[in-house]
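Lab notebook, bench 4. Still working through the backlog of constructs that have no structural model yet. Next entry is a single chain of 169 residues. Request: give me the structure tokens for it.
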Amino acid sequence: GDVIHRMLTATQYVAPLMANFNPSYSRNSTVQYLDNGTVFVVQWDKVYLQGKEDMGSFTFQAALHRSGRIVFGYKEIPVPVLQISAAQHPVKAGLSDAFMVLNPSPEVPESRRRTIYEYHRVELDTSSITNMSAVEFTPLPTCLQHQSCDVCVSSALTFNCSWCHVLQR
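Model written out:
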């Protein structure tokens, strides 16, 4: 989106492993990405936790596929994620999405109040994040996939879909 707000980073994320990583600690630490048009991959390679470099380096990645499938891959996780302190930075793994609405403030009419609505979050059980493991998210079908009225009204989706003839959706 075009709005930057501190709380949006807490509510909008795709995080294979969010923690207080310090990629500048080692010359061997990198954060790299690849986009081939079909999949976008970000890899954190040999990154260390800030102030806890003695724990060892972490290597993991997130792959976002054009189909909507998301895969988190974990190559090197030197300590159980539950042992990572959240005192300096949140420790999370999963997906979250939110949006922000700007409403006029009743107290000051010329100002706007920002309200952030988090509408969905998927949190991973961090005890399952180990060396050489992976997690795959597969998108569920939605009403927007229907291309005709007949397909829409005969759908077995549980969303109570209905067809809009004006929008042809």
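Notes after review: Helices lie at 6-11, 149-153. Residues 98 and 118 are 4 Å apart (CA to CA). Flag for follow-up if needed.
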